[in-house]
Amino acid sequence: MADEGRVFTREEVEEAKKEEIRELLIQAFDGQSVLYEIYKKRGWLERILTDKILSMDPEALYISSQVAEICETQDYVIKNKRRDLLDYINPTTMGEGNSKIYKHNYISVFKIKMIIGLTGEGSEYTLPQLKELIYGNITKPAAASDNKAGESNNDLLFQVMKQMDQFKDFYKLIQSGDFFKEVEDRAKAAAQSAAQTLMLESRNDEEVKLQIDDLYQKINAADTSIAEKELLLEKFSELEQGNPSQAFTIRMYKNAAEDRVTKFKQDERELHISKIKERILELFETFENAASENERESIREQLQQISKENTDLHFEIRYWLSTTGKEKKRKGFFGRLFSS
């Protein structure tokens, strides 16, 4: 084999482990989890497949404080989410009563990470809504204990009775002749709502396009500094998070803007090098024509200062000087200039 006998670096080993846990998580959740599908369809997988998540050990069990660190949140958040969705998270329980301890494998930790990202302040879902998505409209999965199984059966009975009452109301509505009128009214309302939504989305798309173009023009402008251009680049990521439907267009502009910033940096460095070279040669020429040793010493100090301030150009400075002036004078000049 090509890799036989090869010694892998620590970074390569860690990267291979992360790729392994990524594959395990995708295999466990892709096409199997409604929460995972939400992230996948919205292009948010990078929010849950974080570096800390991918650094988990598939054989390890994590306590709450470790889960909080992996999920980048507080301990109490982990405990609250676990309490409300205990059956779904399904941690390993050790001990009883006040001494009960929950430990979580990588599957349980990843479930908590998904839950945290979809609930809480500013999120799209509440915990009850998430329960509805996870457990469906009838009942949640029965837990191991008889008590919880009984509660689940009670939930099922309550849902069946509720659906029977709803059917009675539906039957009365058909008999009264109002059923088809209700369908027509709802269809009209839905059509109007859809039209308004499309109009709002169209306006928003136009506004986002204007923002994208404005950002790119500012980055491309000659009167903005490199630091300002890099700050403007970050706004592309903010726009992408707020407008996932236009992620492709935003990324396209962002990539083009990053290329322009790289070019600006290269041009700026080349200009800087050109100015340094011009100043070096100017000082060398002055040194050659200096009338006194004091004047030459002053020039040597200036050249040494330039060399210290531009350590990355140390080799270039020596080269520029080596190609200027007479051989005899140059030898003594180098000895004094670079001896310190």
TrEMBL record:
Protein name: DUF3387 domain-containing protein
UniProt organism field: Paenibacillus solisilvae
